[in-house]
Recover the amino acids of this structure.
């Protein structure tokens, strides 16, 4: 940071409160309007937002090359501050005005015979005085009232090039500003009451011959507002246009154009545009009735002089009577939605809430929450498509993918709830580790591939030290693509969209629903509490990239679902994490937790996961599902039996005809067809088309199990639990399963619950499977002979754990 910037920050930080300060753009800086700063342009939002010394210092500190000076707004916004800006003839004017210049704070620069003097105007006179420019008197000075003046910092040099670049210096005490001398107040009153000839401001409405009195009253009210609304100089076209549109909304006649033109001509930075023509005329013709109304003009005037003090007492009564006697005029809907969207883009959550409450108050709404809900409805309306027939819907190419086949759909919003301390976060972080690292996952007793990608963790109620410990416990790699944001709010819709666009995560974990709901947590029994969840579900893949979103929620005191049923209705899936019952402990062990999928829009309700702490103190999470039972012929069992058969013959594939003829699968042709369709959708099997001579060259569909061919943190599990030798080995360490053998449980991960013995089937012709009658004991004996000592030790630990 340069020495000049350090001096500027030191000056700003010692400024007194009670004034509307602003950082000043350095010379030649590009403005948001596309124009170039001349070295005196204030920060855009300071025109309508009062910045205190700390706010101003923050902007300068963040962008020291952009902002190199500090200014202050004059007028009622700064408690009546007025600046006498002497551009030339200072020595002569000192003789004329004498001691009245000596007691005032003064700003000087490298420009000779020039200075700025600071005074204050008594509050009783704020409505009857007006500033004026250099061209109004030709006396070499102007009076800044409502406009901004630079106090300290970089001086860009004079426009004529006679004064070089340098620095503004300040002398005096801003806490001891003298009252404006009588001669200065007299000039300001004179300009406020002066009638501009040739179509200027109107002094007396009775002098205009209107058959109806209302336009005259409106004209004088507009004139009163324009007296206190300053021009904003370079880059303020939007402000200029908005003032013109507000006037046009009630006075679309030449009278309105006259008022706007006279006000526009007062901005000295646009003086060149008035040479030979009126720049307002062409723009005025383009105005149409729109969202900007006279209320906008009133709001601008109120920012300069609160309490409608800019109106004379009689006109104040007229406006008050109109407001009380007519129906309440609310802001335009589009204007409210635009303002809400801008507020939601703010990074500072405190500032965001303040702006939302202001907008809600203007719209006469109950609170900012009601405003946000309306905004959510509007965004949803904008994103929805036109009506369509069912035929058109069925033609749409929608594809549901899975991060983890048959477990984590994408897009999806799932809610995981459980009692405190039962391991909800550990389950979520373990899933996050699988996605972040691409580690294969156990589904139906077999490792399946995982779509690797970035993970976004949004935390609302956990200390960072606790999150660090949990991520260390699941051994999340330090270089994993995981992004963490703390103090998150579910209502931060705009920030969520930006973050999703930036990170492009495959998995989002929100911990927790209550913690990320801020002050609204006490409303969890009200249906409105679920509004952010509806927003996430409806707009997943629409307003932001499609992702799997897992939200952690707390159970109630009895271990049941906590809060309004609307929470459950708003999401795609609900998962319940509980400790195993006494009956289940025999299969799970005491350190395991079961996750039951209670609700699923993709038809997976009733399935379960098991979370275990392994012998090496790491955590494993895997599918925990009943093994297919050949005696069970219900339609719901067909999918499991088809999946098991395709895994048995892997890497060979089978047609639907072969599956239907298989004794293990059985079932009707229709059931087999639907089972394969659903297994393909869930990412558990793949489909390809092969040309068959039997069908006369027509393509026939063949189905193959999807099994991970890479190794994750643990060995790839094969259904037999052995690694075959000889010609049965295949690429990636996978094997053809020895047909007719019953798969034992893996060393870690999924536990199969035995049900009515082990299914068997006759060998299929042409399937690539071989029938082997070797007993299990002999298989394991041969397999152990090829194990390394470390592998045998791991198997023994696993046996002890079971």
């Amino acid at each position: 940071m340069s020495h000049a910037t350090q001096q500027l920050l030191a000056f700003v930080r010692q400024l007194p409160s009670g004034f509307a300060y602003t950082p000043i753009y350095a010379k030649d800086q590009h403005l948001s309007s596309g124009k170039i700063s001349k070295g005196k342009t204030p920060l855009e939002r300071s025109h309508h937002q009062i910045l205190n010394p700390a706010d101003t210092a923050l902007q300068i500190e963040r962008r020291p090359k952009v902002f190199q000076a500090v200014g202050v707004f004059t007028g009622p916004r700064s408690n009546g501050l007025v600046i006498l800006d002497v551009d030339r003839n200072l020595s002569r004017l000192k003789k004329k005005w004498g001691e009245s210049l000596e007691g005032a704070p003064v700003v000087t620069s490298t420009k000779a015979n020039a200075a700025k003097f600071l005074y204050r105007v008594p509050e009783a006179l704020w409505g009857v005085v007006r500033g004026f420019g250099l061209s109004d008197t030709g006396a070499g000075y102007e009076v800044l009232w409502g406009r901004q003046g630079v106090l300290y910092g970089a001086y860009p040099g004079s426009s004529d090039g006679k004064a070089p670049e340098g620095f503004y210096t300040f002398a005096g005490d801003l806490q001891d500003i003298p009252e404006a001398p009588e001669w200065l107040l007299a000039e300001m009153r004179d300009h406020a009451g002066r009638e501009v000839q040739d179509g200027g401001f109107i002094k007396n409405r009775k002098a205009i011959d209107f058959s109806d009195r209302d336009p005259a009253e409106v004209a004088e009210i507009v004139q009163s507002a324009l007296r206190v609304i300053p021009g904003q100089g370079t880059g303020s076209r939007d402000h200029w246009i908005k003032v013109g549109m507000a006037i046009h909304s009630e006075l679309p006649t030449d009278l309105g154009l006259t008022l706007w033109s006279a006000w526009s001509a007062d901005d000295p930075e646009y003086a060149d545009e008035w040479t030979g023509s009126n720049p307002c005329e062409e723009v005025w013709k383009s105005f149409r009735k729109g969202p900007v109304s006279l209320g906008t003009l009133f709001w601008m005037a109120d920012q300069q002089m609160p309490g409608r003090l800019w109106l004379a007492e009689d006109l104040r009564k007229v406006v008050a009577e109109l407001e009380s006697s007519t129906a309440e005029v609310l802001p335009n809907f589009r204007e409210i939605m635009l303002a809400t969207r801008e507020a939601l883009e703010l990074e500072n959550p405190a500032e965001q809430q303040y702006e939302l409450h202001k907008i809600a108050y203007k719209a006469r709404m109950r609170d900012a929450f009601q405003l946000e809900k309306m905004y959510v409805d509007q965004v949803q309306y904008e994103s929805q498509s036109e009506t369509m027939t069912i035929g058109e819907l069925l033609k749409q190419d929608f594809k549901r993918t899975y991060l983890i086949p048959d477990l984590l759909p994408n897009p999806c919003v799932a809610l995981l709830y459980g009692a405190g301390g039962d391991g909800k976060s550990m389950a979520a972080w373990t899933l996050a580790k699988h996605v972040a690292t691409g580690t294969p996952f156990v589904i139906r007793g077999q490792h399946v591939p995982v779509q690797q990608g970035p993970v976004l963790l949004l935390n609302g109620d956990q200390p960072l030290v606790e999150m660090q410990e949990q991520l260390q416990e699941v051994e999340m790699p330090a270089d994993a693509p995981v992004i963490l944001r703390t103090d998150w709010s579910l209502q931060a819709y705009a920030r969520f969209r930006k973050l999703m666009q930036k990170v492009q995560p495959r998995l989002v974990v929100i911990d927790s629903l209550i913690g990320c709901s801020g002050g609204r947590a006490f409303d969890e029994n009200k249906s409105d509490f679920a509004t952010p969840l509806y927003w996430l579900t409806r707009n997943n893949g629409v307003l932001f990239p499609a992702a799997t979103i897992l939200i952690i929620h707390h159970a109630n005191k009895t271990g049941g679902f906590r809060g309004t049923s609307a929470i459950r209705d708003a999401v795609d899936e609900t998962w319940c994490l509980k400790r195993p019952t006494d009956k289940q402990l025999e299969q799970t062990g005491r350190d395991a937790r079961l996750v039951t999928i209670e609700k699923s829009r993709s038809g997976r309700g009733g399935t379960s996961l098991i979370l275990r702490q392994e012998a090496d103190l790491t955590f494993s999470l895997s599918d925990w599902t009943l093994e297919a039972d050949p005696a069970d012929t219900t339609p719901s069992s067909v999918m499991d039996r088809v999946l098991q058969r395709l895994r048995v013959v892997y890497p060979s594939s089978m047609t639907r005809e072969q599956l239907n003829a298989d004794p293990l699968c059985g079932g009707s042709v229709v059931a087999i067809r639907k089972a394969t369709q659903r297994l393909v959708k869930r990412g558990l099997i793949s489909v390809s088309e092969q040309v068959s001579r039997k069908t006369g060259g027509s393509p026939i569909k063949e189905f193959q199990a999807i099994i991970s061919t890479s190794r994750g943190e643990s060995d790839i599990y094969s259904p037999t639990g052995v690694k075959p030798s000889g010609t049965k080995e295949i690429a990636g360490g996978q094997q053809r399963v020895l047909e007719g053998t019953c798969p034992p449980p893996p060393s870690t991960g999924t536990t199969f619950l035995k049900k009515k013995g082990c299914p068997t089937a006759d060998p299929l012709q042409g399937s690539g499977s071989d029938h082997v009658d070797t007993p299990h004991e002999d298989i394991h004996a041969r397999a152990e002979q090829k194990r390394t000592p470390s592998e045998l030790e791991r198997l023994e630990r696993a046996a002890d754990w079971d």
